[in-house]
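>> received
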Amino acid sequence: MDYNFKKIEAKWQEKWKKLSRFKVDFKNVKKKYYCLMMFPYPSGTLHVGHGRNYIIGDALSRYKVKRGFEVFHPMGWDAFGLPAENYAIKHQVHPRTSTLKNIEACKSQFLKWGILYDWEHELFTCEPSYYKWTQWLFLKFYEKSLAYRKHAPVNWCPSCATVLANEQVVNNACERCDTEVQKKELKQWFFKITDYADRLLKDLSLLTHWPERVKSMQENWIGRSEGVNIIFKGADFKGGVECYTTRPDTLYGVTFVALAAEHRLLETFNLSPEVKKFIDEVKGQVVRPEDKFEKKGVFLGKHIINPVNRDKIPLWVTNYAIMEYGTGAVMAVPAHDQRDFEFAQEYKLPIKVVIQNEDKSLREESLKEAFTEVGVQADGGPFNGKKSSEVVSLMRSFLEEKGLGKAQVRYRLRDWLISRQRYWGAPIPIIYCDSCGELPVPEKDLPVILPMDVAFKAEGESPLARETSFVNTKCPQCHKQARRETDTMDTFVDSSWYYLRYLSAHEDKKIFDSERVNQWLPVDQYIGGVEHAILHLLYSRFFTKALYDCGLIHFQEPFQNLFTQGMICKKSPNTGKLEKMSKSKGNVVSPDELIEKYGADTERLYTIFIGPPEKDAEWNDDAVAGCFRFIGRIWDFVLEHKNSYIDVSFKDIKDDVLNPDVKNVLRLTHKVIQDVTNSLEDQFHFNTAVSKIMEYSNEIRGLEYKTQEDCKVLSCALSTLLQLLSPLIPHVTEELWEILGHKKSIFETPWPEYDKEKIQTDTITIPVQVNGKLRVTLEVAASINQEDLKKAALEHPRIQPFIVGKSIKKVIVVPKRLINVVV
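>> returned
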């Protein structure tokens, strides 16, 4: 019987669909496991790179089912967003139409991969039944003063024609379309995530099963710092400038102060045309402290006084001082801050060393870069000779005592800007009345329905603002004519709570069943890309804490375990470089073509075997064929021995009557169960598990199983082989399991258990090479002598084909390590 993967895979996919495999009975759960993939944005067909995390998630879920867990494995769609709306503008296709079409294509792909989800709990964030509760959450946040509206300079993408959150700006460009971002002053809605900065930072310590890289990224983004607000009085103008610094030890080295272009002090000065022009240019830029760019500035013709040494220092407006960080004024210490050093070099400003290195060799005129390490205070008044790290706290106390400054804790994190001037998103449930002012939509009137009949134009104003039937409404308080808010919410709002809704996907009276949510969450395993470390994962943590404070849930972190898979890359025919798969780079591999040629199980196996799943991996078309051949060998091996198969367990075997080779197979069977189990339990080492199974299959094939007891060992070996492979290549293992005579699905049978005592041995493993190429590994007694070892190697059935009819020049034996037969 040939391995007809097309017939086999179609058969089992249909069976799984009818059986509703992975459907959870929530009323009868003894051992729960919530396994969740980050739900996708349905932008079109999926390629093999997309498949990695979904295949990993499915394999894990199937494994947990076999370990006796009730596995909840749902899927939904992050269906709102800019791409669908931009597509609508370009092609005049409604976003809902294109989105639902893409969802069907994605679901079809999941089915072809053999991926099982609980589709009864499917979510669509673009459906009123979902975004009603997104709006309800907005109202709860509004009630708790966590949602508010204010005028603010915002990041504007002229291409996408909408506002971007700070996190969506990368190197002064839109993260989605790479267009240069501008600054605009608009009235916008924000979520007060800064109220949770301390808890978001502190509770990172609770996330012991999250990648350190992700936690570090969040810690840096929250950016807690302890510093001092220092008052610099004006030398030639009234008032002064307040600067925030975490390095008060460098205060004696300040040689100028840099203001942000938006600083309010500038409004009090009579600015020259040159300064005004510069400010207008800089206001349109978006920069972060860590960004690398050319530092520019203009002298304002004003000076301030250094409070500790009374130096008169110039006041500049620059492009690297930012209102979003600190006070919008930087006390510049060129000798000990690289940004300040670069600026001072460019504009020939003084550089003053106030912290010396160990040999006290630093000189202003010879500095090539800022000295930012811990050193000894120099030219620092009463602090001279002290270690600079000690002076930080001493100076802080000194400034507070003298009334020159005040200690303060600040955060890099800024409130989350959620307003979007676009159509395809959840409408913000706010009404504006000329008499009553700003009012929340009453809960009974939710959802505020997104109208379907709108005109799509590439303009900054939301398309909703032109829809009078949407905009015009009645005030819920005085019942006079009123206006709806026409901005929609950032789609990250939709994805910040979906993991809670899955459990009550069709509940229409409340947002979710709190009892069920508290039973099933935090999510046991969350799987997705590291690119979501700051945005989605941070926002989800914020939402969870806010909902905890509202009394809706009893836990404060959403995801207990987090796994971030690496990308699958392929050489681009356009550039010749190894790059992330992308249609624009011409290096996409279609899963449909692959499945047509080799089958879904082959793609699954190769995707899992390609390398450590947390690391990026290079796709190799030739290696896919190798996985196909391996499955073919498993198929042939099982069919070869199906008539010898007996439905037995390890306890039925009398191992004392087994010959050494078969007894070794029994030992190896227990060993491979142990190895594969450890690989799957230990940080998703699926690739290692596959490697162990491949080695095992090579060992058990090619031996003769003659007696009844031998056949029992063989049967346990066949059963184990299929059981271990079943989460990885489910179609073919289900088929072979059935061919062996089993009535129940392989996923209704428990994961095999190993006996540690059966693994113990006084043997050693010796690899045997022929002309330097590995052909077999021998399990031999540790005490075996060299001649017997040579004899065992040369007589092994896996070595015979390579030496028969050939001249053996020599047999090299490295004691207890290696044999190499040279022919």
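>> The radius of gyration is 33 Å.
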